[in-house]
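Fold it.
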Amino acid sequence: MQPPRPATIASLRRLGVVNADIYCNAVGCGHSGSVSFDRLGVTDETPFPSLARRRFICARCGGRDVSVRPDWSSYRPKGT
């Protein structure tokens, strides 16, 4: 049995997701921000998990220990 394929930028866009949320994991920081896929310059074929391998740097503390998640605030389930 094949493991499920990771979500791509295109599949997230179809759900209405257009941004990635970036969270700083540094102790005492917790800064976060949202960046559009367009600003990141990623193609629709890009697997979303690959964004976590980018070298994001926290604008507040300069830390590199960050988490990347889809920004689900614009998600709209079908039928709504």
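The mean pLDDT is 92.
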